[in-house]
Amino acid sequence: MARARDERRELEKRVRSVLLVLSVLVCLIAMGLWRADNPRLVQLRMAVADTLAPGLGWTAGPVEALSAMVRDFENFTDVYAQNRELRREIERLRGWRAEARALEERNAQLGALMNVRLAPRLAFVTGDVIADSGGPFSESVLVNVGERDGVSEGSAAVDGSGLVGRVVGVGERSSRLMLLTDFSSRIAVTIQPSGRRAIMVGDATAAPRLDFIDDTEDVSPGNTVETSGAGGVLPPRLPIGRVIAVGDGQRVALNSDLERLEFVRLLRYRPDRQIDSSGRILGPRRPSPGAELGAEVRPGAETSPVATPGRSRGPSPGASPVLDGGRG
Amino acid sequence: MRGWIDALVPESGQVWRALLVGLAGLVAITVEMAPVGTGPVALPSPDLLLLVLGVAVVRRPDCVPVPMVLALGLTRDMVGDMPVGLGALTLTAAIEILRARAPALARSSLVVEAITLASVTLAMLVAQILLMLIMLAQPPYIMALVRQWVLTLAFWPLAVFAIRGVMGIRTASGPVGARER
Fold it and tell me: Is the ipTM here above 0.90?
């Protein structure tokens, strides 16, 4: 009896060590695939999230209710301060309201003069935030709308007051948003009123950094920051926040409240397809004025379809997908 | 050889307990992911999955099989936006360290168990940062990881209560406990 038990224990130990080695291998391979941004792995991730999405919804309810209770209690304790703050805010907004009305009227007049027809290109779908990343490794949330609701990779996500992030993974019925504060978030922005371009870089703090501003002289705290639309991933002119000066550089105080995300709106945006070069790939190239003066044109090089595909999108202003994309 | 087959077929109580632990692990993952405080300033969620598996493996090492730990770790990595495999690797390593110490911990007090858990999770944290650096990926801020570590330790008594009190997974007395020695 004792010998059988010993034997069994020995065998269990051996099986376990084999399993252990196998799991370490699996983890290392997974890490490699993750680092290489393997598309299959991204698909698998979203498939797993899809499967777990209903369960996440169930637990999110009670846990959210509990945290709402705690938050209500906190609000209760500083209700006087909040009240005062709100009164001040109302005063300020009254002034803005008058200004907004005047502007609206003026806009309508100008629109009528110009005979403008606005094309409704933006459609949206609203989703409920069902999970967050939880850990300190990334800033992202899962939303309960996915491919079947028309969400696509790169869709912009906004809450009531501004941009929140963009879609980086789409499952059948859920999608993952990378928030603006994630380490990998890079958004091409315009700073108004100067119209300067910059890149907003997330670094896991509440206010993302502004990088590559073409002229810092024109940019001062309080200026508004909005998406520039460069790269064609995000629609232009979505509000993001205001410029603030922190220590060495400029950062953006976000309009949206990332702490209490409950619902987000995912925009379905299709930028106009622009043709920014002549159809060199399809037909024989017309001799340009420079070529006529220069050496003879070889007939073989002219019709080669492979010669210029990389350059065909060249001169379009800021059409680099890297500006808006790039994760990892 | 009958010993072979016997060794690979677990007892039924063991299977049920393992299922219970696995279910608790899944619940831990979903609670961790609940969207409470989503931004960078909010408190991170504690590592509940590690707590559940760690408390269980100290009490019943035979009810926390390696493949289950791996599957739960990978699931968490995929659903949460962790580097896939990193969380699972450190989780598996931590559980194995605790498993090796389980016979000794079963005979000592809860304070010793808490200290062991604290040092194992701290080692996990260091390993995660090192692995991220080796992969040339951006590691999270150390302060953020430390905040999560403190929160995890704060939730440990709750995990002990849930596993031992509610689910009834205690240190086995008699032949099963003696077997591990």
Answer: no
